[in-house]
């Protein structure tokens, strides 16, 4: 599960080094290169040299030089990555963006801020606190992770259930492309959602130099509750019952029996050791809203849980959350070998996923100590953390086999291979299990259009080309035109004449045929007491496929935030493909469905679409 560290190979042309030196600070100290070349997981390598730019213009010139001399560039932010996503190596240059760390503007009235990519998430939160505002993404690594890193990984965090992932809070970004040109992308651009493609692209398409983020008011009151359960199914059913009331908790976190008892070896979690699963829930808002929501959540918990705890002041809340939030630190401080996994399943499949992980741990008990399952239950995003003795000769093979089995189980349950950590290098072998050859080919086309020479973060995300990948020249041409701002000829918007409408109430997702009319969908929503932000109140005979493929203005923004997945055709041969799905979090590969939003059929036709829904209160 690890990649060996390699030493520099002195592969850079002296002329390139000389040009780089004239533009930005150059670091060649081996100790610094070694330290800066590793991520939180400890994976990485030693670059030839490191550059520390301090402006967009410096980055643009660096990329022009890199293109001229064919030099691979590895961008680095806070290096909190857990998927081997920053692969420095001999002959490559590490591009340290920590020097671009200015908060350029805070617009309190419009609730937005302009920041450089090297601003650390927690520093931004501290800066915003006096205004009673915050940037919603709150990964556990916020004290290390940068805003730029949040963007290229599409980071989530405990409170993504109510407030969304990073994608939902990025309004615009300036991006330097590998040839040194700069593009400014916005959430309300017309045409394909190129900003959405850059988000979650793991530093492989361009260098983000400035970000405009949406801010939200800090909730004046937050209370926390804990429920302990005899079975995982009872815990999952209780979460569904809470959400079915119309209450949207700020956070719903999960820990399983093996995780609680395993972590108890390293520190006192404070959680009941006889519970099969525990669930932590935050409710926030005004005092009146919290009083209402807390009473509803507590009532549901007491109907099903073996134990319920309520924390209303900050001291009690910190104690209740300590066991969950302290888990990453305990992993490092334990002295044991560890691997932090990341899979996502539809939230109603969490019990099956937990059972599969526990069965895997049992099968490999000769090489592993235990696997702790914790994660964001409201999103179905689980982090199975595997512990092992470093001197156990069976550990390496057991760890690899266990990880394979866990990911296979997630895919069987309709999930995906990564919900927030990204593919990096660690999950590349699973990309061909998650995606079909044409889906991989479409993503490869995106990379080749943005980065023709493959200079940015090489070896990350995409697998080697397989003989089964079909040519997708038409798809690539559509990406190229979108990046150039060129309008392509009209093309069919939908395919298959599918008008079916169905909802998964346990997962709170809606799947509709692209030829279903907006009036038919609205009628279904009304009849079932649910809402979907993407569906206008009245739409007549216009189809949902037409809405998505041509969306502009407020309709476009509503679709952006609600769209989970799309079954489409790829324009070359109209081959069926699927991008996204029913999972609330999915950062496997490029977010290719975003090209079909406002794409006017240029990339292919829409067949079915999946959206988030809410229970009507």
Walk me through what this model shows.
The chain is an alpha+beta fold and 617 residues long. 34% of the residues lie in helices and 21% in strands. Strand 23 (563-570) and strand 24 form a beta hairpin. The chain is globular, with a radius of gyration of 24 Å. The model is unreliable at 1-10 (pLDDT under 50).
Number of strands: 26
Question: What is the overall shape?
Answer: globular
- Separation, N- and C-terminal Cα atoms: 46 Å
CA gyration radius, whole angstroms: 24 Å
Give the mean pLDDT.
92
Weakly predicted, low-confidence segments: 1-10
Question: What proportion strand?
Answer: 15-25%
Key words describing this protein structure:
eight-stranded antiparallel sheet, 34% helix, globular, five-stranded antiparallel sheet, alpha+beta, 617 residues, disordered N terminus
Short précis:
Helix content is 34%, strand content 21%. Residues 1-10 have low confidence and may be disordered.
Outline the fold blueprint:
Blueprint: H1 14-23, E1 25-27, H2 30-36, E2 49-52, H3 56-69, E3 73-76, E4 93-96, E5 103-107, E6 112-115, H4 121-128, E7 133-134, H5 147-153, H6 160-163, E8 170-176, E9 182-186, H7 194-198, E10 207-214, E11 216-217, E12 221-229, H8 232-244, E13 251-256, H9 257-263, E14 277-285, H10 287-304, E15 307-311, H11 314-325, H12 327-333, E16 337-340, E17 343-344, H13 350-363, E18 370-376, E19 381-388, H14 395-412, H15 428-434, H16 437-450, H17 473-484, E20 501-504, E21 509-513, H18 518-527, E22 530-531, H19 544-550, H20 553-562, E23 563-570, E24 575-580, H21 593-596, E25 606-612, E26 614-615
Parallel strand pairs: 2-4, 3-4
Antiparallel strand pairs: 1-2, 5-6, 6-10, 7-11, 8-9, 8-10, 12-14, 12-15, 13-14, 13-18, 16-19, 17-19, 18-19, 20-21, 21-25, 22-26, 23-24, 23-25
């Amino acid at each position: 599960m690890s990649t060996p560290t390699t030493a520099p190979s002195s592969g850079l042309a002296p002329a390139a080094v000389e040009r780089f030196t004239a533009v930005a600070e150059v670091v060649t100290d081996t100790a610094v290169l070694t330290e800066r070349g590793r991520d939180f997981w400890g994976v990485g390598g030693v670059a030839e040299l490191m550059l520390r730019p301090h402006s967009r213009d410096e980055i643009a010139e660096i990329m022009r030089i890199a293109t001229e001399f064919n030099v691979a560039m590895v961008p680095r932010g806070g290096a909190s990555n857990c998927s081997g996503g920053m692969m420095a190596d001999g002959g490559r240059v590490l591009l340290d963006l920590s020097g671009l760390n200015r908060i350029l503007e805070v617009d309190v009235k419009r609730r937005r801020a302009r920041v450089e990519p090297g601003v650390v998430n927690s520093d931004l939160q501290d800066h915003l606190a006096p205004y009673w505002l915050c940037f919603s993404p709150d990964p556990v690594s916020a004290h290390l992770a940068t805003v730029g890193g949040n963007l290229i990984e599409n980071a989530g965090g405990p409170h993504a259930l109510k407030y969304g992932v990073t994608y939902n809070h990025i309004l615009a970004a300036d991006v330097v492309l590998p040839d040194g040109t700069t593009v400014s992308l916005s959430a309300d651009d017309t045409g394909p959602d190129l900003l959405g493609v850059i988000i979650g692209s793991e530093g492989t398409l361009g260098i983000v130099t400035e970000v405009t983020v949406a801010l939200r008011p800090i909730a004046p009151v937050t209370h926390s509750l804990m429920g302990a359960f005899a079975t995982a199914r009872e815990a999952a059913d209780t979460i569904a019952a809470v959400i079915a009331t119309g209450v949207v908790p700020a956070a719903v976190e999960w820990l399983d029996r093996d995780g609680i008892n395993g972590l108890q070896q390293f520190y006192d979690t404070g959680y009941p050791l006889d519970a099969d699963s525990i669930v932590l829930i935050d409710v926030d808002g005004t005092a009146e809203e919290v009083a209402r929501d807390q009473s509803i959540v507590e009532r549901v918990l007491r109907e099903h849980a073996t134990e319920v705890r309520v924390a209303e002041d900050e001291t009690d809340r910190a104690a209740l959350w300590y066991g969950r939030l302290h888990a990453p630190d305990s992993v490092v401080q334990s002295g044991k070998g560890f691997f932090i996994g990341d899979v996502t399943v539809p939230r109603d499949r969490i019990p099956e996923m937990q059972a599969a992980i526990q069965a895997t741990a049992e099968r490999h008990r000769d090489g592993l100590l235990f696997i702790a399952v914790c994660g964001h239950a409201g999103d179905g995003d689980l982090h199975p953390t595997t512990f092992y003795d470093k001197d156990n000769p069976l550990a390496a093979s057991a760890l690899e086999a266990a990880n394979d089995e866990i990911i296979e189980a997630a895919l069987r349950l309709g999930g995906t291979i990564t919900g927030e950590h990204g593919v990096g290098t660690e999950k590349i072998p699973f990309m061909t299990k998650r995606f079909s050859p044409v889906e991989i080919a479409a993503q490869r086309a995106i990379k080749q259009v943005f980065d023709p020479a493959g200079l940015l973060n090489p070896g990350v995300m995409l697998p080697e080309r397989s003989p089964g990948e079909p040519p997708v020249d038409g798809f690539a041409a559509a990406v190229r035109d979108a990046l150039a701002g060129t309008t392509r000829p009209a093309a069919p918007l939908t395919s298959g004449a599918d008008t079916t409408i169905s909802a998964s109430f346990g997962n709170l997702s809606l799947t509709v045929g692209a030829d279903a009319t907006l009036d038919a969908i609205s009628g279904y929503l009304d009849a079932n007491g649910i809402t979907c932000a993407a569906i206008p109140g009245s739409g007549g005979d216009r189809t949902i496929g037409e809405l998505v493929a041509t969306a502009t203005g407020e309709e476009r923004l509503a679709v952006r935030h609600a769209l989970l997945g799309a079954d489409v055709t790829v324009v070359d041969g109209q081959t069926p493909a699927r991008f996204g799905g029913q999972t609330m979090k999915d950062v496997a590969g490029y977010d290719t469905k975003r090209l079909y939003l406002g794409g006017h059929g240029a990339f292919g036709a829409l067949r079915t679409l999946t959206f988030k829904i809410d229970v009507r209160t």
